[in-house]
Amino acid sequence: MNDSANVIVLGGDGFCGWPTSLRLSSEGYNVTIVDNLSRRKIDVELGCRSLTPIETIERRIQVWQEQTGRTINFVNLNIAEDYHQLRDLIVELQPQAMVHFAEQRAAPYSMKSPKHKRYTVDNNINGTHNVLCAIVESGVDVHLVHLGTMGVYGYGTAGMTIPEGYLNVKVDIEGTDHQIEIPYPPHPGSIYHMTKTLDALLFYYYNKNDGVRITDLHQGVVWGTNTEETLMHPTLINRFDYEGDYGTVLNRFLVQAAVGHPLTIYGQGGQTRAFIHIRDTVCCISLAITNPPAKGERVQIFNQATETHRVRDLAALVSQLTDAEVRYYVNPRNEALENELVIRNDKFMRLGLNPIRLSEGLLGEVVDVAAKYRDRCNMEKILPSSRWREDIPFDREGSSAPQQAVLA
Ligand code: NAD
Ligand code: USQ
Questions:
Q1: Domains of the chain, with CATH numbers?
Q2: Ligand 1 atom 22 nearest Cα
Q3: What is the predicted pLDDT for the residue at 140?
Q4: Helical (H) or strand (E) element with 216
Q5: Average pLDDT over residues 109-125
Q6: DSSP letter for each residue of 346-407
Q7: 192 tagged catalytic
Q8: Is residue 130 lining ligand 1, measured as CB closer than 6 Å?
Q9: In whole angstroms, what is the distance from residue 95 CA to residue 169 CA?
């Protein structure tokens, strides 16, 4: 048990943050959630809501207390704006670790309009910078565990196995070959992904100049919804996004199958992505907290993903399992038609992660959750309403075979 250790979870009301807060609390950490509830406000803006009926944060915490006897505290503040409150909270709690989920995380939402681009940059970059600056000003030796993304590496074909953050390169220095290690070149594919590559530069600087101990977790697309702890009581249920901006691909396909909407493959479904189940997300974060970098060590980077899949193969799998129709839509995104993706994830494996692989059982479990709440699904919100450029048409019909590529 970790009874004396405080942990602050920034963004602890969100999809990954809520089940992580419960896991850390059950492991004995004294958890304080910091969240400005902006994600719930974005639901209102988008005219949509979580497929699962999530309760208020106050009610969630109350039921957790009743179920387990453990207290989770909640502080409503905006980490991108309320700098002094954040700094004072760090001084007061002297946390062993801060887990940083508190960013605008949807690539489509970040591409919606100039307003959304600017909001995403302001929120994510100011938020991350405030966290780092507040840690230094507080004088507390906090281990910062940040949720980054596999998307910082880009989604072209790298032609090699993607390393964990750092790349070994050979450089010619005055006629002699030298082997050096550099941060992997950033390759963002959206404004949102760009903020994650900028975060990485902030980490690099604050680690080098101020010795802040940082773990950056390059996470793949998360799927699933329940964890051991969220299943303990209906009020602890996790949020479940399915609409065009926040719904991620595999969860979307599973909901679409459950509500009788065709599976929405963009382009020819040739993108290969890294995936992780939400239950492994919470395990990885716990492992990251218990394995901090040493004082003076550079930013520690883990690839937090357990397997890779091509989008059209996932659609075929879901269709096979559920008989859902598959349709191809003009891709609203500017991304490669096809890419190969091979990744390393040795660090978490060495720390004892026992990966949950895609299986019919787990896919079926998500379909069951989606079917249970299908009446809450707004069918109008399934097709995408954001696009990477204004010359990309919105395709409301789709077709039974891949469409002609719109982008060169
Ligand atoms: P989410 O939107 O469900 O949760 C983010 C939480 O942070 C929300 O509760 C929101 O209200 C809060 N928040 C945002 N800005 C804030 C601010 N300025 N001050 C205080 N609170 C703020 O997102 P998620 O899916 O839980 O993702 C969490 C993190 O993990 C993100 O940083 C995301 O980039 C990363 N990630 C997510 C996925 C995924 O598939 N969901 C995959 C890879 C990485
Ligand atoms: N896609 C479809 N049909 C859909 C939805 C998506 O074909 O209905 C395709 C997209 O074109 C894309 C792929 O599926 O090629 C993945 O899209 P996604 O929305 O599941 O994932 P992405 O936009 O990359 O973002 C999500 C999270 C983000 C996180 C990222 C991890 O929202 O926070 O950083 O996954 S990663 O993809 O590894 O960068």
A1: 6-381 (3.40.50.720)
A2: 102
A3: 98
A4: strand 213-219
A5: 98
A6: HHHHHTT--PPPP-HHHHHHHHHHHHHTGGG--GGGSS----SSTTSPP-SS-BSSPPPPS-
A7: yes
A8: no
A9: 37
Amino acid at 397: E
Quick one: pLDDT at residue 157?
83
CA distance 127 to 202: 11
Is the pLDDT at 78 greater than 80, yes or no? yes
Q: Are 223 and 278 in contact (CB under 8 A)?
A: yes
Q: Nearest-5° angle of CA 379, CA 385, CA 388?
A: 150
Query: Is there a contact between 79 and 36 (Cβ–Cβ < 8 Å)?
Result: yes
Pairing of strands 272-277, 342-343: unpaired
Q: Which of 15, 100, 273, 312 is the pocket-test mutation for ligand 2 (most atoms within 8 Å of CB)?
A: 273
Confidence of residue 275 (pLDDT cuts 50, 70, 90): very high
| Residues 188-246 pLDDT 10s | 999 999 999 999 999 999 999 999 999 999 999 999 999 999 999 999 999 999 999 99
DSSP string, 25-76: HHTT-EEEEE---HHHHHHHHHT---SS-PPPHHHHHHHHHHHHS--EEEE-
Distance between CA atoms of residues 101 and 358, nearest Å: 24
CA of 151 to the centre of ligand 2 (A): 9
* pLDDT > 50? residue 407: no
Q: How long is the chain?
A: 408
- Cα 159 to chain centroid distance, Å, stands at 25
70-80: average pLDDT: 98
Helices 311-322, 360-372: axis angle to 10 degrees equals 70
Averaged pLDDT, 166-182: 94
pLDDT at 408 over 50: no
- The catalytically annotated residue of 29, 83, 155, 192 is 192
DSSP string, 234-297: GGGPPP---STTT--HHHHHHHHHHHTPPEEEETTSB-EEEEEEHHHHHHHHHHHHHSPPPTTP
pLDDT band at residue 3 under the 50/70/90 scheme: low
* Confidence at 405, pLDDT banded by 50, 70, 90: low
Q: What is the DSSP string of 164-197?
A: SSEEEEEEEETTEEEEEEEEPPP--SSHHHHHHH
Q: Is the pLDDT of residue 1 over 80?
A: no
* Ligand 2 closest atom vs CA 251: 20
Inter-CA distances, 95 with 71, 89, 122, 124, 392, Å: 16, 9, 26, 22, 47
